[in-house]
Amino acid sequence: MPTYQADIDAATSLIETQGSTWGVSAENVARMKAQNRFQSGLDIARYTAKIMREDMASYDADPAKYTQSLGCWHGFIGQQKLIAIKKHLTETKGKYLYLSGWMVAALRSDFGPLPDQSMHEKTVVAGLIEELYTFLRQADARELGGYFRELDAAKEAGDSAKIAEVQAKIDGFQTHVVPIIADIDAGFGNEEATYLLAKKMIEAGACCIQIENQVSDEKQCGHQDGKVTVPHADFLAKIRAVRYAFLELGVDDGVIVARTDSLGAGLTKQIAVTNEPGDLGDQYNSFLDGDYVNSADDIANGDVVVKANGKLLKPKRLASGLFQFKKGSGEDRVVLDCITSMQHGADLLWIETEKPHVGQIAGMVNRIREVIPNAKLVYNNSPSFNWTLNFRQQVFDAWSEQGKDLSGFDRAKLMSADYDNTDLAKEADEKIRTFQQDAAREAGIFHHLITLPTYHTAALSTDNLAKEYFGDQGMLGYVAKVQRQEIRQGIACVKHQNMAGSDIGDDHKEYFSGDAALKASGKDNTMNQFG
Three-class SS string for 158-226? Predict the structure, then answer.
């Protein structure tokens, strides 16, 4: 990026040659340019795609360099997440945003709260991407605005050391804009519909799109029953549609995450087209549950028969018209799905599992890597898992194999608070703490995300505030548990007028109107009570 002084010099030259009547300040122009680094969503998509590709290469060289994100359902939540990351960790490297289709459905649809079944307006997805980046760009403008005010104060004081220090901060500024992994569900229709929505998402700033192999009109949440997958040819057409969208828009290194729900999906809507034994369609059909038939007498009215494994197979068909897969075939289907997706244009994989278990994930990834050595995953650290119970049971089972005395534990009731201070619970908590680094090292997980954490944090914090404010604590419920904690912990949002852009607006008014500007940040602004 150009330095702050270089931008001032460029603006000065422009004004001298073309803008003698403009009445603008070169330094103000440089400040506004610095505060608005990204001119469009496509600028963001190209910038963040490069970051993500670099992070993928770093992970290939060292699995300890995995990446993370949290799902955010509003631009403000994404903004506060990145402000917190910069505050506590000093840099944003390896930290992304996740856009969860679940949260879009539950929180952003004009229909009101909906289940995660692709019933919400698909345009809301691209709208949320744009909103998230609007808030992140505003976070840039706000932080840089603070630096500019510091610089003005240093200049007024004639403090050359401070001037140099602040200018270094401005020139070395790290943007809040980071990659987003955006959920396009099953594509919201056919491959043309997928392409059109992918374009909107990329134009809004998405450098990475996640798509799943479920049927669009039967799509279910990954942790609900009744999931229906599609033959590989259908899914690959949608992957290609997303790739075309990236290439058309000039995001040549855009990232596609191919998600398979086959581990928990026992149904398919259609029998795959197959042209010869062993092709993809034939492999897909080989997992169908059914009975082999020897003659027409074995076929009832309306039955469907396919040739599979050299024999005639009558697949089991439900009253809904859906066909069943063989019990226990989920892992084999996952492995085939992942290999096929990687061989046809996907960059990353997502395996939706029913529990967080490093060994289970590693077992599938190792099989995939026999064919695709650099295969790596995006993994859902899902709130749909009962993490406490799952890991306590994993420790219980491991201790049982080791012959330890477990007479003081009831495996089915390990969630009980009665066990919270036991050695078993402490070991389980340590496994939860290290789950991401363990899975990155042992199970090929490049990116760890939590799909809907801020849905839960909003509910929990609101419950705690309501309990006290509407109870006998009254206003103290807010002051002690919210405002006082904001002040003590240095939460910038305690100055909510500043966070909402009041100071940015004042700066602009001064640029535009000079001494005549009517500013909001004077001595009577109550935000001054917070220092």
Answer: CCHHHHHHHHHHHHCCCCCCCCEEEECCCCCCCHHHHHHHHHHHHHHCCCEEEEECECHHHCCCCCCCC
> Is 185 annotated in some ligand binding site?
no
State the Cα torsion 443-444-448-450 to the nearest 10°.
-50
For 62-97, the pLDDT digits (tens) are 999 999 999 999 999 999 999 999 999 999 999 999
Length of the chain as a residue count: 531
- The answer to whether 221 is a known catalytic residue is yes
12 lies in the same domain as 86: no
Within a domain: 301: no
**Residue 312 — φ and ψ, nearest 5°?**
-85, 125
Q: Which one is catalytic: 72, 207, 221, 338?
A: 221
299 is a domain residue: no
| Per-residue confidence (pLDDT) for residue 464, from 0 to 100 | 95
Which helix (H) or strand (E) element contains residue 286?
none
Please state the pTM of the whole predicted model: 0.93
Would you tell me how many other CB atoms lie within 10 Å of the CB of residue 24?
15
Tell whether 151 and 108 lie within a shared domain: yes
| Residues 208-256 pLDDT 10s | 999 999 987 665 544 445 689 999 999 999 999 999 999 999 999 999 9
13, 114: one domain: no
